Amino acid sequence: MKREYFSPSRFIFYSILGRGYGRAFIVAGFSIIAFLSTMSIIAPFISPHDPTKIGIGPSNSPPSPSFPFGTDQYGRDMLSRIIWGGRFILLVAFTAVLICASIGVPIGLLSSYIGGNLDRSVSLIMDSVYSFPSLILAVMIISIYGTSVINEALAIAVVYIPSYFRVVRSQVLSIKELQYVEAAKCSGANTLSILFKHILPSIISSIIVVATVNFADSILTTAGLDFIGLGLPVNLPDWGIDLTYGRFELASGSWWVILSSGTMILLAALGFSLISEGYAERQNPKIR
Amino acid sequence: MHATFTDEFMVSVEGLVKYFPVQKSFISQLISRKREYVHAVDSVSFQIRKGKIHALVGESGSGKTTTGKVTVGLIEPTSGKVVIDGRDIFKDEVDRRELRKKAQYIFQDPNSSLNPRMKVGQALEEPLIHLSDATKQERKEIVMKMLEDVNLSPAASFYSRYPHELSGGQRQRVVIARALIIQPKYVVADEPVAMVDASVRAQIMDLLITMQKRLGLTILLITHDLAVASYMADTISVMYLGKIVEQGSTEQIFSNPLHPYTNALISSVPVPDPKVKREKQIPHGEVPSAIRPPEGCRFNPRCPYRFDRCTREVPELLELEEGHFVSCFLY
Prior knowledge:
The structure holds two protein chains of two kinds. By secondary structure, chain A is an all-alpha fold. Chain A has eleven helices and no strands. Chain A has helices at 8-17, 22-41, 43-46, 78-114, 116-130, 134-145, 149-175, 179-186, 191-227, 239-250, 255-283. Chain A starts with 7 loop residues before the first helix and ends in a 5-residue tail after the last helix. Chain A is 73% helix and 0% strand. In chain A, α4 (78-114) packs antiparallel against α9. Chain B has one domain (2-326): P-loop containing nucleotide triphosphate hydrolases (Rossmann fold, 3-Layer(aba) Sandwich). Chain B is an alpha/beta fold. In chain B, α8 (168-180) runs parallel beside α9 (198-215). Chain B has an eight-stranded mixed beta sheet with strand order 6-7-8-3-9-10-12-11, sandwiched between helices. At the A-B interface, α8 and α9 of A face α4, α5 and α8 of B.
């Protein structure tokens, strides 16, 4: 008996496409993510210009045949910057999601399943971590250990672990009381088998939803770190940097800088949303 | 003498007590130090002979399910002893795995006791994975045979179905099959027919009886329905608010009900004859709270024959005729 919960993105997807598009969503989502990842990996071979070179074209020129995405205020080619721009931000986001899911989910499962004082103390620790403002903690970690993919990912991951923990915990609390969990116990299943075979599959769709939000947030935090100068050097190509600095150029009418970089961030988040929605639908056998 | 005792009885429950602490809020914990308990089961004793069906009958909240779960080790008792096949399951260092192989539980609600994401085949395979050494191929064969045994045929088609694709009766058969697949000696059947349609009720009861005969099972049948108990059980214990009020063979209970509560229960079983007019003895009032059970006999606030002694003393379970026990001051 899976409880249906309201999700705005699901409402939009279903009202446009109707149900039964699970597989299509997953394929579309993976295609977007695969496209972005491939583009970032082979960037050195496909970008038409050096993304950091100033004065390749005229300053702030709108999209034209020679510069399809236009140029920024220093005359750098936007197309090349977009192609290169995903490398760092995607890597940080992937790593961050991976780190905090692989820490938060098992802790949430075990702690809430075992319950009692263990659960109480772990919840207390998680709540105190949760009360930290993410950007400030990230600033702290990075100013101590310096900028690198791992440090930025860790800085973002630490703050996001409690989100996974809370989502997992609240669901496990209700699922562990269900009769089929007791039946599994009676069938001789041990705690690990109950957690990973009976409980985890029922909550994986919510975990993926948290991962999607986490992914999008990681991208924004990375961009934020770039903005305050703790991320990458400003001249390096990065969607986050282009989006934050492109704001100033929007006032002078150069909409193409933030449109292209913003679209890329949107695409990355959309890819993950599609995977999550498709997976949620396939996970629920009743609507397959 | 002890040897014959263990030979004769598959299950022996002695002085079983289970209190559940009442969850209180932080504030009320500060105000009052006293802990409160739900007296779910209060010194319950019964024995089941090998290969027999014993029924626990009572209304909801009488502690039947708690008793059943304690006897298969799913709940730890507050005190008391449960001996299955000659071994005290809470005292001796009984291997959990061995216990699970011997004692299984048929859960009450087939809708929630099957994982909605697991196919029937996977659900039935699970006890075999954990409790037997069968290979993958052997497990599949055992599951297929079991599906045929519980009349879910063609087995191959049921093997790969999800629980939501089954009817209530079919789900109940799957739940029974899962409990019986490792060939236990003792099974608790918790309201096996309460959730299925009246039309398949008899089929499920017959299935349980057939399987019991074939495997030589000892069954503890938990039911609120005396008609089900009379159809299946050899012996019956009537429970009220965590205590056994009357115990005896099915014949004794039905032909000569002694306790006022048993009388009331029997008078509520419908008789399929419109000419029969019986005096209904429905006890007035509600079941009292199990947190603060009534003083004296627990049935006294609702009993039509109550007198002084009932509110002061707790009646003992007395043997009035051979194998027929009652706990009432009328006798």
